[in-house]
Amino acid sequence: MRWPRRLMSLLFLLVLLAGPPLVLLTLIGPPISGWPSTAQARAWVQEPLTEQTLTAALAIGAWLVWLMLAYTVAVRILIRLRETSAWLRRLPLPTPLQATASGMAGAAVFGVTTTNVSTTPPHPVSSGPVALEVQASPDEPSEASHKDGIAVSGGWLPHDVAAQVAAAAALVWLRRRRDYQPRNASRDNTDLASLPATVAAVQAALADNPRPPAAPAAPAASNGITALVDVLPAGGVGLTGAGALPVGRGLLVSALFAGHRHPTISLITTKAALATLLGPAAEVLGRRLPLTIVDNLDDAAQLIHTAHHHADPRTITEDWTSRTARHRQIVLLNGDDGDEPQVKNLAEASIATATTVVALGDWPAGPTWRADSAGHLHNPLHFGRTGPRLCVLDQTAAADLLALIADPDLTPAEPTAPRAATLPQTPDLRLPPQASRHEPTLQPHAARQRLHLHVLGDPQLLLDGQPLAVRRSAALHILVYLAAHPTGADTAQLTDAIWPGLPRRTLTGRLYTALSDLRGTIRDAGGLPAIDHVDDRYRLNPAHVNVDLWHLNAAIHHAATTHINTHTAWQAILDAYPADLAATRTWPWLDPIREATRRQIIDICVRLATAEPDPHHAFHLLQAGIRIDPYNADLHQRASRTLTTLGDHEAATELHNRYQHTLTRVGLDDDTASHRPSSTSIR
């Protein structure tokens, strides 16, 4: 125990402060009893060294030593008080809502009775009227969000890098939509596999954070790259410390994502450095990424000289301050990749071409800085000053993110193919034997089902035809997820879908709170058990909840298995598809199910158009498919051929030009490079 030592120290300090004055006053008296008279001053000048004067001098010296000690103690006490005051100011105080919740929890602990015991957390009681629309208020801030960036399992990304990741993820799904061939029996839908977990975590964090752009348009050049280039010295820098490799991976990811959308940013790395950063995934990813791999530093120096001489002289100058010019080259290597002449050659080339050189380890041609685990760089010449926070990633997170921009046509990094996405099974719904576009009643139980959940388009929960307010965004998320998974989901599946990338152990309470609030809201409004909970699985009760997605899937199955008036049945399905699944939401888990449903609908359009003898009607059906998926190339080719058959060449050209404009607007116009190897290896 440390308190006896602290008590002894306090007692010793008190004795040290109070003891000397008591001894001096008792044995010698006050150091000065009054001002000396003229005669005493004259006598001291004639004979300064007397017993009395020496005693007085020693007493004054002792008092001065004591005053210095007392001053030191007082200053130390003031510093400690100031630190304590600053800590108290930073101490987070409970908000009124938290204070109320704490009081309720205390009342529940000390006032619990033996009746009406519930195993689920109590739900808040709504005091307001039923809203006129679904209103999902945000839950508590996610651990994944930060004012300067986003934390994921295995690292941290600045907002600009995260926005680049989200834009690349959106392009992956747009590319899959563009390349899908309707009614192609050879396709197994393996391209509907979900994106890596780290990508989903970034998407989910940005979905809850309004700062990054929601559209998949190309963000501006990476601010993370700009910040790094601006703080590094000419001739290169070495990175050591606990954060050297994580910062190196973050630099690799930041540069490649920035260069993916801005070709003026290029990355050169050595084979050894890439293996150091990515481990076993380096060999496969190195062949698929848009970077240049060299064996030695002389090759790197030659490359940057060549790129500099072929660059536009208006954007590249010899002055190092021009590093903010449009073209940026970054060389990433190990500190021991070359000998002294190679290091000197590369350093001179980097200075001449304003190239950024980063060595993982000591750099003989320049300074070596320390990188901490949080991503901050520390220049030893500026003690106590830290640079901007940079992207930091472990091997798994870096490989997950780099898979987004790797060449999709080459062998995947994983030995097994991704599992194909399939539509969830739909509850057994009894549909009429024949549907009609004039009978949009795919709801046979509407007479006794008071709850209607619409998830095609903007999610909305209706009670007796009137919108019912869902107060928590997580609760609305749960409703849509269970609608898309009619067989139910357990706690782990729900937490992974709603809060991907965060540890489950910290999310169980939030999930139970959202579920309790949702079930309580529905029960208070209509007295219906809408969500069943059996064996740790939650599912919507089909006896009380009517879901439009379920009836759409049931109608598709019905039309595919019946031979009675098939054209009318298919047309009724098209009429029953108002919009994509949860079209206004950007939750990552939606993409595979949303795309699988969309493909079924455009397959119907192509099937009807192919069987339609009238080319005018066939074109209108293909137009319906294009409205559902304006990015699909096959639909536009079929529509263009149909217009050509009708003799309307001008309309066919206009359709083609409009389609190219659509691809350009979302960044798919120059995407032909994604179908060939993009990395360069210099041997």
Automatic annotation (TrEMBL):
Annotated GO biological process: regulation of DNA-templated transcription
InterPro entries linked: AfsR-DnrI-RedD_regulator (IPR051677), TPR-like_helical_dom_sf (IPR011990), WH-like_DNA-bd_sf (IPR036388)
Keywords, alphabetical: Membrane, Transmembrane, Transmembrane helix
Annotated transmembrane regions: 57-79
Region (Disordered): 118-149, 410-442
Source organism, top-level taxon: Bacteria
Protein name: Bacterial transcriptional activator domain-containing protein
GO molecular function: DNA binding
Keyword Membrane listed: yes
Low complexity composition-biased segments: 410-424
